[in-house]
Amino acid sequence: MAITVKVVERPVNEVSYVRAALKGMGLTIKHLFAVGDRVTIQYPEEKSPISPRWRGTHRMLTTENGKARCVACGLCPTVCPANCIKLVPGEDEEGNRYPLVFEIDEFRCIFCGFCQEVCPEEAIHVGRHYENSEYSREGFVYDLQRLMDQTHPVCEMWDPEDPKGE
Amino acid sequence: MSVLHGFTALLQAADPNLPPVSGMVFYIFTLVKIGIIFGIYMVGVAMLTLAERKISAWIQDRHGPNRVGKGWLQPAADGLKNFMKEETMPAGVNKPLFVLAPILSFIPALTTWCIIPFGAPMPTRWGRIDLVVADLPVGFLFILAISSLGVYGIVLAGWSSNNKYALLGGLRSSAQMISYEISLGLSTIPVLLLAGNVSLNSIINQQAWGGWNVVNLTVAFFIFMVAAFAETNRLPFDLPEAESELVAGYHTEYSAMKFSLFFIAEYANMVTASALMATLFFGGWDVPFTARDNIGPYSKWLSLLSIGIFLAKILFFVFVFMWVRWTVPRFRYDQLMSLGWKFMLPLALVYIVLIASVMLGLSAAGIDQGEKIYPAILGSVNLAMIIILFAILDRGRIISPAYGRMHPREVERLKQVEKQLEKRHPIAAEAGK
Questions:
Q1: For the residues B218-238, what does the mean pLDDT come to?
Q2: Quick check: is B284 in a domain?
Q3: In the list A89, B138, B197, B406, which could disulfide-bond A72, CB 3.0-4.6 Å?
Q4: Could you say which DSSP state residue B163 is in?
Q5: CATH number assigned to the domain comprising residue A133
Q6: Could you check whether the bond before residue B90 is cis, i.e. omega within 30 degrees of 0?
Q7: Quick check: A39 contacting B, CB < 8 Å?
Q8: Is the dihedral of CA B135, B138, B142, B143 positive or negative?
């Protein structure tokens, strides 16, 4: 079998090394002096904007008198696919249910946001917050008080009426 | 114009026939010069690592290091880190050579500096001080001898590491550096022809009154520059390192200060190559647009000014090195070799013959080197040659891309090879189809 070599006629500016290299150097020098085009975000001082639907660290909302809104209905531990919510329900003398123990293991959590979606009282939320590093694994188990103490904005759920969030 | 004259007059306010210093003073001043050069060189090389990171960052629309002392202390932080790191000694290395290699790659770059003149002679009360550590009469030959030693460090590093990537890097660098050394040496022969001497001081003097060699010998400058890129193993010729193919090439197995020494050597080589380009083709420390500034009378201000000018020229070339590195991608190995042997070497040889005949013709016509028309004629010869090279020959011939056309002779040869293969191994040839 004879070797067939396909010889392609190409325009000079495509096969010229020097021209291409000079063109490239022109481009790089332009970027060198384009001070306004720097794309780096200086992270700890400067943060990139996050979506209003960002699902991060949890937050438990409270009522006016400072109690957790949670009524310990047990929907969130049921729906949680990662099984990271621990809930022990209690009942006071008036018959109101409240959580005796409410713990979220942020390490197990996959931040799907189902707990927020399922909550009938709009108590548990995923938040617009991501800087939650800890020195130990135990630190990632957030108890009720810690969840109530969080102050960051909460995730805005996707609204079927307004799919683009406008 | 009169301002310029006044300026030069101010610079040349000293006795023209000051004798050079001698005896004890000579030794003391030589030691001082060595100390100053070594100090500035090492600090400069450290700052160049920062410059490289900054320039690469800016070209890529980033900020670059800006945390440790606003970025200025980054080289110090890097140095400290390299001191604190563990010195690894992989199994199976040839220990003496493994330790020796970084030193060997560093020393030649530094040694070259002892004969590069870095400023106009400085008058002192003890006599004239030439601003060069050793004014060797063999000058340029010494540089060629020393710079070819640089390959030993890299080859020994690759071989002693007991690592296939390191070995491949060392192999490549030896082939590459030896190939380009030839073009590098040949490209400087026209410079020596013009100067009529191999001493670097006389090359600078010749350029001061005869025009810079970049005008007289533009093509030689380009050959020298390309060969210098290959000699310093910088992109687009960084095949010995080739991160994407060879991990880190010859210094794959090195860590801590030994690795750092390779790094320093790379930048030191870059500075030395830049200094050589400035000296051989851009008039060395010659202050541009002033005549007679290198035959005296001298003054301290002229010396300082010329040192500054020389530094500026070096920094410009170092910037070009970095600029090219962050623009041009790496060559394929066969492109590298064919550029070196099939293009640069013949070009350098043709160029020597051309320049020699032009010089012979001009001297036969009675035109002296000092006359204004001399650089003009040489310059126009170069211009014609550049137009021929870049406008007509640079069509996939200088560096053939993967899709470049194959010479009909090469196609014919491949066909023959195939036929022989069919005759000898019919089954294999059948399977090949």
A1: 86
A2: yes
A3: A89
A4: -
A5: 3.30.70.3270
A6: no
A7: yes
A8: positive
For residue range B405-426, list pLDDT tens digits in order.
566 777 788 788 878 877 777 6
* Six-digit token string for B40: 């500035």
With respect to residue A1, please indicate whether it lies within any of the assigned structural domains. no
Distance between CA atoms of residues B276 and B118, nearest Å: 11
Domain housing A71: 56-149
A38-49 confidence digits (pLDDT tens): 888 888 888 888
Whose structure tokens read 């890299």? B154
Q: Which two tokens stand for residue B423?
A: 């005759």
Number of domains in chain A: 1
pLDDT of residue B7: 45
B292-310 exposure pattern, b = at least 16 Cβ within 10 A, e = fewer: ebbebbbbebbbebbbebb
Within a domain: B156:
yes
pLDDT of B349 higher than 60: yes
User: Is the residue at A92 inside a domain?
Assistant: yes
pLDDT in tens, A127-150: 888 888 889 888 899 988 888 888
Quote the domain boundaries for residue B194.
Answer: 2-402
What sections of chain A are H helices per DSSP? Answer: 12-15, 17-33, 75-79, 114-118, 144-149
Contact, B250 vs B161, CB < 8 A? yes
**CA A32 – CA B323 distance, rounded (Å):** 9
Report the residue from A2, A3, A37 with minimal CB separation from B61.
A37
Amino acid identity, position A165: G
Tell me whether residue A50 is in a domain.
no
Predicted local confidence at residue A14, as pLDDT: 65
B residues 295-334 closer than 8 Å to A (CB): 323-324, 326-328
To the nearest whole Å, the CA of B180 is away from the closest chain A CA by 19
Give the CA distances from residue A81 to residues A53, A58, A75, A99, B274, in Å, rounded to whole numbers and listed in that order.
20, 16, 12, 20, 64
Taking each helix axis from N to C end, the angle separating B23-59 and B74-84, rounded to the nearest 10 degrees, works out to 100
Domains in chain B, number: 1
Residue whose tokens read 């300026």: B7
What is the maximum alpha-carbon separation in chain A?
96
The answer as to whether B417 is a domain residue is no
Confidence of residue B3 (pLDDT cuts 50, 70, 90): very low
Task: Give domain status of residue A83, yes or no.
Answer: yes
Q: Which of B59, B404, B432 sits opposite A15 (nearest CB)?
A: B404
CB-based contact B129:B122 (threshold 8 Å): yes
Task: Tell me if B377 sits within 8 A of B358, measured CB to CB.
Answer: yes
Q: Which of A116, A53, A131, A130 is nearest to A85 (CA)?
A: A116
Contact between residue B68 and residue B53 where contact means Cβ atoms under 8 Å apart: no
pLDDT beyond 50 at B1: no
B64 has a pLDDT exceeding 80: yes
Give me the residue from B59, B62, B399 closest to A40, CB to CB.
B62
Is position B416 within any domain?
Answer: no
Question: Tens digit of pLDDT for each residue in A57-76?
Answer: 899 988 888 888 888 888 98
In 3D space, the residue among B222, B224, B227, B197 whose CA is nearest the CA of residue B210 turns out to be B197
Chain center to CA of A47: 14
